[in-house]
Fold this sequence. Notes:
binds NADP nicotinamide-adenine-dinucleotide phosphate, single chain, two-stranded parallel sheet
Amino acid sequence: MTTGVSSGIGREIAQFLTERGARVFGTVRDPQSAKAIHGVELVRMDVTEDASVKEAVQNVVGKAGPIQFLVNNAGYALTGALEETSVEEARQQFETNFFGVLRVTNAILPEMRQHGYGRIVNISSALGFVPAPYWGIYAASKHALEGYTETLDHEVRRFGVRTMLVEPAYTKTKINGNSKSARSTLEVYAAERKRVVEVAQQNVESGDDPRTVAEAVFQALTVKSPRLRYPVGQGVALSRLRRFVPAGLFDRNLRKQFQLD
Ligand SMILES: NC(=O)c1ccc[n+]([C@@H]2O[C@H](COP(=O)([O-])OP(=O)(O)OC[C@H]3O[C@@H](n4cnc5c(N)ncnc54)[C@H](OP(=O)(O)O)[C@@H]3O)[C@@H](O)[C@H]2O)c1
């Protein structure tokens, strides 16, 4: 099962896994408006609603038996300086990007444990391991997902279940159009926020092909001994830089790249 297949990375993952012979259930919030994907069975699910998640999982298990592969992909981005962001906006971001993953995973785990086999891939981001000015709560939600996934892997490994992180960098999808902005704004951040958000949004427009993410997901799901982290595309170099470049140098380069004052 893959969440959030109405567009972008999720759509590509569902298509790719189907082409490789898997029976794929793809979740969408609005099945009426969702465009069909050849061979993929669409299921209604809003990852922020307990009842919707429970119903979708029961529906899939009823049709196909225990779910072996789960890809938690559904998510959106929230932009704005951290000081401009309300707790409620931050809570909504976490409700989808973090608690959504927890909700879907907890709904699926009992069957996976009993079955004695399962693979769970969480779609994180390069922003799960580097800071992101003006995308701070989004980055925090992905950092939380990284800690959650690494910990879960230790708890469920003895049941034959493994959890992995796929970490795309800028990827060409509808994420810009679907992103939300903090409603209250502060003049002191306005110019820099505009500049940084524009740079990042342009990078998405010229970003990696979502197929590269689907390939990494396929590898994580099928390789005999999975790694915890699968950085993708431009994320591969960034992940190395983060690990091996001294913190001060990394900090200066990040500020230079985003032309921070
Ligand atoms: N594009 C990038 O540069 C990039 C980089 C790193 C990581 N990512 C991550 O990749 C994942 C997919 O993003 P994308 O780039 O493919 O963006 P996208 O084209 O906007 O797709 C997002 C998907 O998430 C679904 N979704 C959003 N909120 C949901 C909810 N409450 N319940 C169920 N589904 C929900 C959307 O479905 P609806 O049609 O129902 O809205 C849509 O199918 C996200 O987790 C994102 O953080 C993206």
